[in-house]
Every structure is written in C-alpha cells, then in structure tokens.
Amino acid sequence: MAPDESVVHGSKAPDKAAPKDLPALDKLLRECAALVAEHGHTLVAREARGLLDALRTRAVAGELPRAELAGLPQALAARVAARMRPKMRAVLNLSGTVIHTNLGRALLADAALQQVLALTGAPNNLEFDLDTGGRGDRDDLIENLLCELTGAEAATVVNNNAAAVLLGIAALARGKEAIVSRGELVEIGGAFRMPDVMSAAGATLVEVGTTNRTHPRDYEGAINPRTGLIVKVHTSNYAVQGFTASVDEATLAPIARAGGVPLMTDLGSGALVDLTQWGLPAEPLPQAMLAAGCDVVTFSGDKLLGGPQAGLIVGSKAAVGRIRKFPMKRALRLSKLPFAALEATLRLYLRPERLVQDLPTLRLLTRPQAQIAALAQALLPVLEAAVAPRFAVSVVALQSQIGSGSLPVERLPSAGLALAALDGRGRTLEALVTALRGLPRPVIGRVHDDRLLLDLRCLEDPALLTGQLGVLKEALA
Question: Any residues with CB less than 8 A from the CB of 449 and at least 6 apart, and which?
C-alpha cells in the first residue's frame, strides 16, 4: 500500500502545516490591526476564529499547505469582506421581462431616489402638520395628489396591492357576503388567492356566473340583505378567450347602487395613463373605473405605475373613510421610505409629456427595437472575446415581456445576444449561466432551446456589462 503523501517517516511532510504551526488568535489580530481598526474587534475576531478553526481541521488531516499560512491576513480580510457583503444586490436584468417580480419590479425614477435620500437622512414631517404644528396623518401628504390624478374623492395607501384588496374587503364586507364572478377568482401569485383573501378578511364569498361567462342578472340575483360588497377583479395575469362574457363596471355600478352595496374593483397593475399612445396594450385606468361608478379602486404602485411597492386605494369619501378607520389599516400602512418614493413618482404624472423621459419603466417599455438591435451589434465582438473559444455569440431578434404579473401575455419586439456552447453540452451552458450570476453585478438572462438569451431592452448603460467581462473571461478559463 502506498504511504500517505503527507506523512514522511511518521511525521508531517515539510510542505504541509501542522496544527501547532497556526498562529494564535491574538497574533493574527495584531498582524491585521488595520482590518480591526476598520471593522472593529468583534467582527474581525469572530471571522478570525472561524478561519483558524477551518485551517486547523485541514492541518489535522494533513491537507493544509504550509505556503498558505503566509496569506492569512489576506484570507481574513476576504472573509470579513464576504461577511459584510449585502445579500440584496443590484443585478443586470437581461431576462427579457421588464417588470420582473423576482428582480424588484419597477425601477425608481431619479426624482424618487433623490426624495428617498433626502428624507431618510433627516427628520421629516411624516406625521407632523407643518401648518398647524400638530400631529398629522401621513395620508394627507399624498391624498390630494392621488385625487387630482384619478378624480377620486378620497385616497389612502398601504404597503402593497394585496394588502389594499384585503383591507378593502375587510373594511366593507367583514361579517357579510362579497359577490365575485367565478371567472375572476384569480390567484395573483405566491398562493394569494381571492377565495383565501375573502376568508382572511372575514367575508363570505358568493360566486356568481361561470368560469367563462357572467351576466348582469347573476349579480342582481345574488344581492340580498346579507350582501356587503360586490368585487370586480381585473385579470391582468391571464386571459380567457373564446365564448366569454363579463360585466363591466359601468354596467355593474347601477346594479350595486340599486342593491345598496358598494362596488370595489381591483386593477392590479395600476396604469395611470393611456398606454396605447405609445403603442403599448391598453390597461384599465382608475380614472375610468371611478367615472363608471366604482366606490373603491385598488391598484399597485410598483408595476405599470413605475413606483415603489405600495397598494393605492382611491374612491368615494364614504368608502375610503371606512377603509381608513378600519383597525387593520395601521398594520398595513406604508412606511416613510416607499411613501417618499411614491409621492415623488406620482408628481411625475403631473407633467405627462415628460413621462417617457422621467419614468424608467415607461422608458424601457417604449424603447425602439432598432436601438436595442444596434446595441446588440455593438456588444457582439466584446462578448465574443470574453467567452471564446467555448461559446458562439450571435445577434438575435427577441420578444420582451412587459411583466411576469402585469400583462404577461403581451410581447414587445426586442433584440439581444444568444450564446451557445460549441461543445453542445448542457453542463457547459449551465457553467456560463452560473458564471454570469457570480459577477460583481450579476447578469440574469434566460435559457431557451439550449441557448442563453440576453435581452438588451433593459440595458441602458452597456458599461455595466462590458466593465466586468474580464472577470467573466477569467471565470470561464
């Protein structure tokens, strides 16, 4: 039997370190005094103990090269840096989905970023009335603006649209019945299902119509003294085609009024302007729903609206007043950071002619295909040099997706780069995907037909990609 390479005549080989060769903790910390001064003793000492414990285990097994001991200060610095690196990081969204749920949805406008920065680094009047000097209501900071933009009598905001729907139903129909068309009993995402929301809000769900067809008479026949609310849900994340029928808000509002119950509609994605003027698919607007007679309209702040995560509730004074006073409201209220970003985003809508320039989401959605294709052509040789000789790169026409939860079936003509492994092996392509995710600014694309597709619609600053291709080349070497 061959002797253990790490053992020579019963002792450790000279190129392997023994446990006794490891420095004491205090000695290592003295050698790393600058690191301790920068990060403090507690963090550096904790990481130093972890480093020494790991090295000791390897030394006992005869697997620690003696030469590695010379790099202990650098190894400790790397551990500290890794410990301090944030888990939540900026990435390059080259997936082809502009409003990507898993990648943070809408990008905030510069005005919103500046507002957040200004108000988080100093005390602010979140709940302080500067006119009277007394206690204020945070809704007062945004209500007039929302009412001006939508035509509502009153408005309030909560931390996301799911919360807006839950709160609206709880405040208006708790202990009563809520009528919903069977074709609108949607699952929004993350197991957020309308029947479950009804149950959590304390309302009894009353289904009317069928999956594909619901008529006015279905609602009329379901209203009774126990009815507290009629709910309409805009099916923004799927489409039913063929033999279908539904009741719009303008038709349903008189039915609700005749029955003495409020009408609430959930628009989900929350467009505030007519998107068709830029060649995008039409989305129902809160303004139109209120004009049609809805008492409450809920919609999202971080999808088509282009702001932070928030649930916006607009409607009549009576209905919004009940929602605002409901005890659950405090638990779901919006905090100061998204509040500041939302106010700044909504102000951009006061000058609609500038929206395409000022609102990143709209700017990306309206980006011309020719411009994206020209960018792909310019990046082609640079990316080829980084991934050669293992991958072939080509410019391809693509179809971007507007959103994973907002208009998911709609497509926008786009362009990008396709990377294919020259050896034809899936593991090789997976190694490329992994290497891109491991870059200082991770790159997220999508794999389709044994190719990695990088849709460039959302890449406005090419340097963010090209500046780290050297790191990619090293990772693939």
Answer: none
The whole-angstrom separation of Cα 268 and Cα 299 is 5
Packed helices 426-437 and 469-476: angle between N→C axes, nearest 10 degrees: 140
Host H or E run for residue 472? helix 469-476
SS3 291: helix
Q: How far apart are CA 95 and CA 137, in angstroms?
A: 41
Among 351, 264, 303, 250, which residue's Cα sits nearest to residue 99? 303
Reduced 3-state DSSP string for 282-298 = CCCCHHHHHHCCCCEEE
The answer to whether residues 386 and 469 touch, using CB atoms and an 8 Å cutoff, is: yes
**Beta-strand (E) ranges in 269-308?**
296-300
- Round the CA-based radius of gyration of the chain to a whole number and report it: 29
Q: What are the residues whose beta carbons fall under 8 Å from the beta carbon of 322, sequence distance 6 or more?
A: 171, 172
Residue 447 has a CB neighbour count (10 Å cut-off) of 14
Measure the CA–CA gap between 146 and 292, rounded to whole angstroms: 18
Over residues 41-91, the pLDDT tens digits come to 999 999 999 999 999 999 999 999 999 999 999 999 999 999 999 999 999
What is the number of other CB atoms lying within 10 angstroms of the CB of residue 436? Answer: 24
CA distance 384 to 337: 42
